[in-house]
Amino acid sequence: MLKLISAPRLLARAHAAAASSPTMRSDSTSPILRMLGSVLGLNGSRSPSVGGGITRVFFCSNASDGSGTSAEAEVKVVEAEAGETESNSAAIVPTNPKPEDFLTVLALPLPHRPLFPGFYMPIYVKDPKLLAALVESRKRHAPYAGAFLVKDEPSDTSTTDTEKNLYELKGKDLLSRLHEVGTLAQISSINGDQVVLIGHRRLRITEMVSEDPLKVKVDHLKDMPYDKDDDVIKATSFEVISTLRDVLKTSSLWRDHVQTYTQHIGDFNYPRLADFGAAISGANKLQCQEVLEELDVYKRLKLTLELVKKEIEISKIQESIAKAIEEKVSGEQRRYLLHEQLKAIKKELGLETDDKTALSAKFRDRLEPNKDKCPPHVLQVIEEELTKLQLLEASSSEFNVTRNYLDWLTALPWGNYSNENFDVHQAQKILDEDHYGLSDVKERILEFIAVGNLRGTSQGKIICLSGPPGVGKTSIGRSIARALNRKFYRFSVGGLADVAEIKGHRRTYIGAMPGKMVQCLKSVGTANPLVLIDEIDKLGKGHAGDPASAMLELLDPEQNANFLDHYLDVPIDLSKVLFVCTANVIEMIPNPLLDRMEVISIAGYITDEKMHIARDYLEKATRESCGIKPEQVEVTHDALLALIENYCREAGVRNLQKQIEKIYRKIALQLVRQGVSAKNETQLVETGDLKPKDSDDSNATIVGEVETGDNTSEISSSDVASESSSGAAKENVSVVADNAQQSADQLVESKNAAEGLPEKKETADVGVKILVDTSNLPDFVGKPVFHAERIYDQTPIGVVMGLAWTAMGGSTLYIETTSVEQGDAKGALNITGQLGDVMKESAQIAHTVSRAILLEKDPNNTFFANTKLHLHVPAGATPKDGPSAGCTMITSLLSLAMNKPVKKDLAMTGEVTLTQKILPIGGVKEKTIAARRSDVKTIIFPSANRRDFDELAPNVKEGLDVHFVDDYSQIFSLAFGDQQ
After folding, report:
1. 487 and 525 assigned to the same domain
2. Which domain holds residue 366?
3. Cys-Cys crosslink for 942: which of 140, 361, 380, 918, Cβ 3.0 to 4.6 Å?
């Protein structure tokens, strides 16, 4: 839209010029002007702004520089020279020479809108040569130039890029981008690079005169002749005026445009009416250019009418939007006022208190039960915050912060402790109900209860349960809480990288919350819960700090009595909280954090323990969850043992639970299928579609079993196994002849009829007991996953069995050595098996030590000096590393060098130094379990690990011949000593 420019100095000069013009008298007002004046309420009167004369004010259009900011320019009116008077009332300032004398002009590109005659437009000239030419023309009293609209660029370029490219164009390139029809513009003023133009008349470019700056020859265009008395033109112009009148009712900006233009132009004829409507409309530049190029006055009026009609539609939409928003706002304000009046009335009558009073009362009531137990410093903070809450406005942001803060402070269980169970025998019973084995953990918990019993009060400790996945670390924490009669709360810190999760946010942050411990206390409602911190070895470290360092204050027994949360900012006593942490590998826990914990290792379960767990816990829970009765299924001892040995060798029992669930799911499917088939068969007998055959004595036996038994008939998997098309488990179906089964059903029905009993409609009560044994176990769980780790009954020459520790428990592995090539001075060692740096170094040490031992035992043997060796650790796809394979490698090398196999059923572990000393290793229990799994009878451990072995359960050590050595010479005698 075009904006009005007005200034006192401009108005004064315009009035002076208007006073001297005879054409500006009131009697010169045209009919169109009088009509517009009646629309505005002018009635032909003059504006009284300057001594009763007409104030002459000009228009300028929106013009933007490169940044898109609009500018309004004050127009300087050039007064007529002495002896000359203004010859017409148009918005043209007289100059000498006259505008029609200019046939060659400078071409000024207009990027946004065309310039219409009678209007002002400020533009910014970025080309220094063009600007200098404009200044020079103005000095030579030839202040005219041609203003031409620029054609559109492709749509993928932005407005800023288009203007930048426009400034770079010169000569023919610039000429090709300009519309042919433009406006002869008078240069009113030049301020820096801003040039104010006044439109005079239409021009058409004929040819280019010069390139830089662009100067063109033009033809002055005149409107085509028209009949002023033509009814169609009159009607069109009246419709334009009528539409403008409708727009003026809704837009004050348009009203100012029309009023000022009528004062300035005077003779408001049809062509100027068309230009005026197009110039002040919000149409795009191409539509305005179309109006500018149109010389037929009637067509120009029609185009302008279309543009003005669009404006009236836009005004209506704008009015409806404004009305809807106003109604919405006024409705909300009315509702708010009524609500406030209602609250004031209720408060005066004593029916209701205000929000702040109600909030304060709620917080005080919540704190009242624990007020005597609440620490004094916390009570002081609560009182201060309650006083602060009364002084704050309910609409302020600080009010919400204070309210949330008081909500947390009063919700915590200050000094509220749960009654603990100090009965050791009851705790022992609860722990044994939930878990089998785990004597170390149970003993530690019973010690904790015993100390609490003697002291009469509970205390907080930090226990860390470490072990492979699936051994029950998390479930142990839940059992401990049940045994102690403490509230249980668990949160996992695996991958936690934000310190605020532990220490809380500052209250000044948006969405601030306390840390996990404060949330725990609010959730459990007691100050002495059992908190299980899961996966503490997987703490992250991100940009928000180091959570492991933030955990130090939480888990330090000397500091957590005054734990300070960033949100609450008052000390909290956590000394009565029992923390139980879980970790898979304690080496991943930072040392300062590990130092504050009491580590209890859970190595895993041996086969016997897994059997008990499967029978007493997993199978029972799975059977109940699947809805199967105990008399409907039987899993034999051998089948369960095969399941553990061949499918579930890991240290934990999570995979064992999955396999048992898989078995019972398939059993449930079989039971449902058999029940449906039996029901269908019974219905066929009842309807007569299936004729029962004659019964014999064997049928009576079956009937007796049905009547007197427990409604079950045990079948073996060897009877019938039908495999489904999907490859699922084979169904164990009782193989009974059709005639026998049908006769049995008939006899039962006849007996019931004789005794007056209702007829037997279904055979669902007659269940089928499904037997799972070693023969059909693969039908339920698939082919065995693990084969025997023991590859050789008697290890060949150069092969020795070692013991290894893995995150899933212990395992056995073989170390193999063979000779590749022999020759003088060809001694070398090649290593394979995806070994880590530590094991590679162990291999080099073993090679050196074995050469020394061979030289000592057999000085004439030059095997190592003249043989290229290859040492390999099988399962090359599995990364292997660790300092416990040194003695095994030496034994393998010596076995090959002396051409002697090692003792049968022998496994060893331990690291060797260059002086043949045996260093201690870790994972004694896991390695012992792995040896038992492979039926190894003789095990060699370092002497320093004797204490670890003595702590093992008797059932783990049973039947093993364990030797503890501190020098390799002892291993040599055990491995190669008495051999048959």
Report:
1. yes
2. 355-410
3. 918
Q: What are the start-end ranges of the H helices in 858-957?
A: 863-866, 886-898, 924-933, 946-950, 954-957
Query: Are residue 863 and residue 880 in the same domain, yes or no?
Result: yes
pLDDT of residue 253: 64
Q: Is 264 helix (H, G, I), strand (E, B) or coil?
A: helix
For 51, the token pair is: 């001594």
pLDDT of the residue at 908: 92
Q: Are 714 and 769 in contact (CB under 8 A)?
A: yes
413 is in an annotated binding site: no
With CA atoms as reference, report the closest residue to 223 among 107, 301, 305.
301
Q: What confidence score (pLDDT) does residue 889 get? A: 93
Positions in the chain short of pLDDT 70: 1-97, 99-101, 153-167, 250-268, 282, 350-354, 677-767, 787-790, 807-809, 978-980
Asked whether the whole model's pTM tops 0.70, one would answer: no
Element (H, E) at 810: strand 809-822
Q: Burial level of 109, CB count in 10 A (0-12/13-18/19+)? A: buried
Peptide bond into 97 cis (omega under 30): yes
Is 726 assigned a catalytic role?
A: no
Q: Is 874 annotated as a binding residue?
A: no
Q: Residues 218-237, buried b or exposed e (16+ Cβ, 10 A)?
A: beebebeebeeeeeebbebb
Identified catalytic residue from 251, 717, 884, 892: 884
Residues 366 and 534: their CA atoms lie apart, in Å, by 32
Question: How far apart (Å, rounded) are the C-alpha atoms in residues 946 and 941?
Answer: 8
Number of domains in the chain: 6
CB 919 within 8 A of CB 939: no
469 annotated to bind ligand: yes
In a domain, 188, yes or no: yes
- One domain, residues 178 and 293: no
Ligand-binding site membership of 470 (annotated): yes
Is there a single domain that holds both residue 237 and residue 275?
Answer: yes
Please tell me the distance from the alpha carbon of residue 586 to that of residue 676, in angstroms, as a whole number: 54
Q: How crowded is residue 549: how many other Cβ atoms within 10 Å of its Cβ?
A: 15
765 vs 710: CA distance, rounded Å: 10
Residue 468 annotated as binding?
yes
Q: Is 471 annotated as a binding residue?
A: yes
Coil, strand or helix at 739: helix
222 is catalytic: no
What pLDDT is stored for residue 34 in this prediction?
54
Q: Are residues 923 and 902 in the same domain?
A: yes
pLDDT for 714: 40
In a domain, residue 785? The reply is no
